[in-house]
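Appendix B, record 7
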Amino acid sequence: MSPDQPQPVFAVISDLLFRSKIDDAARRAGVPLRIAKSIEQLDRHLGNGMPAVVLIDLEMEGLDTPAMLGRLRATPVGANVPVIGFAGHTNVTVIHAARAGGVQVMARSAFVAQLPALMERIAAHARGE
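Structure tokens (predicted):
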């Protein structure tokens, strides 16, 4: 990765609609994106270096968010990486559990609205702006 190349964004997601929104925003900003559909895939991505941020669909079927966060935080690369999770605003149990694990939680609609700006900030940071 060149010095002005943004760090990749890792996204733990299986929902095709949200995946396409994340992919589009990352591509437009020039930010590399790595998709993981499981904890094991996230582990493999972490083995390749530090991401700018990890995005998590907190309502992804089969995802054990506390276990995934525990494994993420137990790695040297993942110990301090920012994590943003998104969920429906009525899914209070998932939201509270994620926040207890240090995740910045956003409602799905707010996440989609702020996604282009997030990717632009990552790209600008890499350019030293």
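Remarks on this record: The domain at 9-123 is CATH 3.40.50.2300 (Rossmann fold). Helices lie at 16-29, 39-46, 65-73, 92-100, 108-126.
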